[in-house]
Amino acid sequence: MFDIAKASLKDLLGFAIRSEIDSNQVYSDLADKYSNPLLKEKFQWLAFEENKHRETLEKLFEALLPREKLEIPAETSEELFKKITITPSSTLVDLLYQAMESEKKAEKFYAQLADRVESQSRKILEYLSQVEHSHYTMLNGEYLLAQEFEDYGEKDIDKVVT
């Protein structure tokens, strides 16, 4: 079991940055996969947000560990972050559920990591935790729509409900 309280800050930030890079790619892929313009725009926005998180974490790393070299692992820890897996048989409902779980786990990670640092760095991590929660909330709305409307990912909203 990965213990956030005992793991090195360097490793934890590296895993977090890897997760943000991976999330950016997944949301970009999802934006390309679906044609519903509103859903596509939301996935593009999430990809943008995850990229901003990566940039924020890189700056935080420099501030907290100025003498350390940032090493981003090839993969993040599944214990810390939930990976979203897109397969040819993945449904929109499944992918949204995975994304919600991923955001929930990231929210918890950043909240726990905030306890490891002081003042301004703590505020940054608390902010990231809250933003991940907002992502969860938005994805949950899309999840409910995808459950309700079978072809939600493929059509413009006016064509889904008529």
In brief, what are we looking at here?
With 162 residues, the chain is mostly helical. The protein contains 5 helices and no strands.
H/I helix tally = 5
CATH architecture: Up-down Bundle
Indicate how many domains the architecture comprises.
1
**What is the succession of H and E elements?**
HHHHH
> Considering the protein shown, what is the CATH homologous superfamily?
Ferritin, core subunit, four-helix bundle
CATH topology: Ferritin
Indicate the low-confidence ranges by residue numbers: none
Estimate the helix proportion, in percent. Answer: 55-70%
Q: Strand share of the residues?
A: under 5%
Shape: elongated
Largest sheet: none
Mean pLDDT reading: 93
Q: What is the β-strand count?
A: 0
User: How far from one another are the termini?
Assistant: 49 Å
Summing up helix and strand content along with how strands pair, one would put the structural category as: mainly alpha
For the record, the CATH class is Mainly Alpha
Radius of gyration based on Cα positions = 17 Å
